[in-house]
Structures are given as C-alpha cells and as structure tokens.
Design a protein that fits this description.
Elements: H1 2-14, H2 28-35, H3 41-50, H4 54-62, H5 64-75, H6 78-86
C-alpha cells in the first residue's frame, strides 16, 4: 500500500502543470520542494538517478516534457520504489 501511495504522489509531481514549471531561477528540485514541503526531494532525485539507465539519464538532462515522461517511467520501476522506501522518503498521502 505504501508503494502505491509513493507512485501516486510521485506521479503527480512528474505531471506538474505549467504553473509549476521551473523558471530560469528555479531548479526542478526547487519546484519539487515547493510541491512537497518537508519531503527530502534530494533523496527522491537520488533514487531516480540511481535507477535510471544511461539512455534515461540523457533524456532527463534534456528537460521538458520528455524528462517528465522519463521520470514517470523511472518512478514506476519497483527498484525505484524500494530505493525511496530505503531512503525513508515520506510523501504526503494523496487525498481522494
């Protein structure tokens, strides 16, 4: 159940609309920190990087919508969820 909550919350972050798109002054980590106050976004980013293939890392570096799609794909990997759990990344529960 916790994995499902992680996927849902991270998927929401990866699907952020234009109102949360980073400006020149903001990094993706800054945007994530604003969306999830109190969440260790650096640990979350580390898990994404650690579980990305070389090809996925190239796509992440490109930025934009392609990077968002790639992030969702990486977050869908069971090993990424395991990494988030091991890093004790606490995400807010999605309200439904």
């Amino acid at each position: 159940m916790r994995s499902a909550a992680l996927f849902l919350a991270l998927g929401l972050m990866a699907c952020a609309g234009p109102e949360t798109a980073p400006t020149v002054e903001e990094s993706p980590l800054d945007v994530a920190a604003q969306q999830f106050p109190g969440v260790d976004v650096q640990a979350m980013a580390n898990c994404v990087r650690e579980n990305a293939t070389e090809a996925e890392l190239v796509l992440l570096a490109e930025g934009g919508e392609l990077a968002q799609t790639t992030t969702r794909q990486i977050l869908a990997k069971p090993e990424t969820a395991d990494c988030l759990i091991a890093a004790d990344v606490q995400l807010p529960r999605a309200s439904g």
